[in-house]
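Journal club side-thread
Mid-discussion, someone asked how the predicted structure for our own chain would compare to the paper's figures. Pasting it here so we can look after the session.
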Amino acid sequence: MGDQSETERETFAAELKRFRSIRGHSKAGLARKLGIDPSYVSHLEAGREHGSSALARRMDSELAAAGAVWEAWQRDDASTAPEIKPAGLPAPTGLLVLEDAADLRYDGSTYHLRMRRLLRNTGDEPVTRYLVRIAVDRYPGDPERSNAHYRAQPLTWEELQLEAHCGPEAMGWIVKHDRDAFKEVWLTFANNQARYPLYPGQEAEITYSYSVSADKWGPWFQRAVRVPTRELSVSLTFPAASEPTVWGTETSLTADFVPVRTPPAQRADGDRTVFSWTTSNPQLHARYRLEWRLKSPDPEESEPAPMNPLAPSTAMADAGIVQDGDPLLHATARPFTLPAEADEAQRVVAEIFEAIDRVRRLHVFGKGMGLAACQIGIDRAAAVIIPPQDGADPVVLLNPVIAETSSDEDEQYEGCLSYFDVRGLVPRPLSILIAHTEPDGTQRLTRFERGLGRLVLHEVDHLHGTLYRDRMRPGVRPIPVEEYRGTGQSWTYR
């Protein structure tokens, strides 16, 4: 028993250290978030302490480890019997999706979607809400055209006519993000007459539906596995006269774009053609995309819209990153009045961290990465930078401005999440001094050098409406990402 306990502790310690490094937290930074002493994190990672089940769950949640840290924790508090856990333990939210069924019907002018999910709360706390994302893209692979299209014809809540139910009960909903082509909404386990949280051990079926006109939807439908799921299915129904053709692709954290392992099954249903596709135990964070081509009396409309499911810009747009062509990327962000707006600043920073977590599931950033508030549709002067070094704390900047730059500079290739299909050779100073403000109103001057300075300048530029291509030398143009050979590698300095 003693040997087994040591093995368990080594496993937990290794997973804890691995995910802390992946998420860019120092031991002190993680300790602050958990409200514990930094030395205790050192003891846990060294295997000298094992911690409680409650702490292990909190660590898993804080590190967005999707159950990996919690699974590695092999025993309960000393006061309880050891717990035997099944494979595929749900994420720390406590939710497991037993069935995820999408039914999309096209009537010739409008797409009508009905989603059904059978949920089980496997956690320790009641679940009171469920996040739903609605994203459309009429012209995938051409973000500038799509942005212009949705600026002229934004997706509205009125046309969506969103309805949601938990069993027979209507669900309330709270808007989290509301952009031209991207919406996020919390479905609440409550309405004006009752509250009905999903308690530990309980199961509930939720359904929601909405409609989008064909000129806004685009010829594709994607499912992203954000919560551990046992079965995922999609049904697509089209008028038979449109002679539909359907194909599917998938991506995951461990595999690039590949065809789905089984083809969509096709059957006739009167004057309709129905395609169905199902997969069991899909990998967490996998994305499944079904695309189609329909015959139309108008030859131009018969041609499929430009599609490239692997296009990096498409992946970033799906993750909620504002794409090139949006006016917000060329505007100066509104500064915070601090400390009066400290709560608002912290809310914005929290949303940036959420977006960073989504993006880091899609790409390896060997040079580090950053994200400005404008890139997630928020017109405020806030940015977060994740240094490339393991264990380095993220850099949070509020109201940053450039106070000083060195005369020495170099040129390195940069990428931007808002047009991630290309890379550009950008000259930057090797040392910079940034003036910024703490939430309590304290004014700071912080010096950044070399690679970290380049990351910081990239985000500060965003907050002042400048893109990296505006910094490139005359006559120099960005290159396609396929031609770039530095992906996943650090910048080099002499």
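Post-session note: The radius of gyration is 24 Å.
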